[in-house]
Amino acid sequence: MVKVHYKRYHQLRRSQEVEFDQEKESLALVLFCGLILAPQFITSLSTFSLLYSFETEDEANTANVNASLCSSVPNGTICCDRISIRSDICIMKGDVRTQSASSSIFLHTSNNTNGEEDDGGEIQHETIRPYTRKWETSVMQTIDELNLISRNASFGVGHHCDVQHDVPAVFFSTGGYTGNVYHEFNDGILPLYITSEHLNKKVVLVILDYHDWWYTKYADVLSLLSDYPPVEFHGDNRSHCFPEAIVGLRIHDELTVDPSLMKGNKNIRDFRDLLDRAYRPRIRTVIQHEEHQVQLKMKEHKISIERAKEKQESKKPKLVIISRSGSRVITNQDSVVKMAQQIGFRVEVLKPKAKTELAKIYQVLNSSDVMIGVHGAAMTHFLFMRPGSVFIQVIPLGTSWPAETYYGEPAVKLGLRYIGYEILPTESSLYGEYDKDDLVLCNPSTVTQRGWEFTKKIYLDRQNVRLKLKRFGQRLVRAYEYSIESRNQNLKL
């Protein structure tokens, strides 16, 4: 039996890319709580909910072996790789035909190696839900299930083509947690890149649980993964025929690409390059429009002075604050902005919404030197930052493990200089709700261990932060000095 365990949080090694300032603060926290925590409390880790990823011991130890499964599939056969705890993936090669009415994909073959088939000529029957959160039963039950059936070619049932394709197809779902930007990238776009990149755009994307808004939102990226219009599986009753079908998506880890598992050793920076190529044309259009508006105003002699000030400001390092609303808000954000300006930054506050065009968010962050944000799905946008820039993640109480696992560690892999700023209890709005010796403040891991509902209710939905300006300002000063140094080095190159 495969043993399943939660990935354990491990503090990233101190390096030029990662900074932690917690030795003194950890001691201060123990003293602040008015007790000495038992070792089991200090080392205990949150399990959170099944939303947080885990892996099998077998998977962790045999990743390279797993990567080779189904890598060589004979014509006329179905091969399914079900070893990963994250997702299943099946390969069908030969005469592949869709039948959306029955949620089926047929493989017509004369290659019956086992000699067994039923009265209808069925040789093999597999089922799969093509979504990358396989371990999460509740969400997987919402994903459309596909029947993959190999059938003797001599049986003519359903053996016709309405649309003949001469390239492979990748079948995947945009259901599940789609609507949350972290899941859209981690569970969808990145796995799609991992699965299809080696096909060099010669692939048809067949989408289950299709959403028009999702396709519109990611059309720029999808256009660099496929030269062909997508097929809405259940919205298109025609029979589509392919020489090969990849059903399901491969996923490596949180918001990353493992080069050891990719053809040509592609990595997360290559994915970011794809984002850059996807959004660059749109950004040029936006910039041209903005410059045209400026020229119109200059003709009216209204902004010559303002324009000169803007030119001077552009020489300063740019800091972007991802602003939240609802929970995990920086309640003294205005003071943080003022402090950053006094340090020498040009500051922009970005408030991304569900309908905010991704190209515009990319434009803002790609041109920034530093990004600041409180832990949450919007931190996924660190993917839009240039390698070498600074990412400061404000980590509220009770969120250390997911903050580092889902954003901190992936940011380092992208090449960002990452600073994880874990707040003190006195910087949390929970400080006013609980006694200073309460475990909610002193040892959040003992609370999060009780389950996802407690983590969500206490630490995610009800917590805001008020940053200690002197303490946080030390990080901003270091980020500023690093940004100036980086700019000077780039000028020398």
UniProtKB/TrEMBL annotation:
Localization in the cell: Golgi apparatus membrane
Membrane spanning residue stretches: 27-52
Keyword Glycoprotein part of the UniProt annotation: yes
Membrane topology: Single-pass type II membrane protein
UniProt GO MF annotations: pentosyltransferase activity
GO cellular component: Golgi membrane
Domain Glycosyltransferase 61 catalytic: 305-392
Entry keyword set: Glycoprotein, Glycosyltransferase, Membrane, Transferase, Transmembrane, Transmembrane helix
Protein name per its UniProtKB record: Glycosyltransferase 61 catalytic domain-containing protein
Lineage: Eukaryota, Viridiplantae, Streptophyta, Embryophyta, Tracheophyta
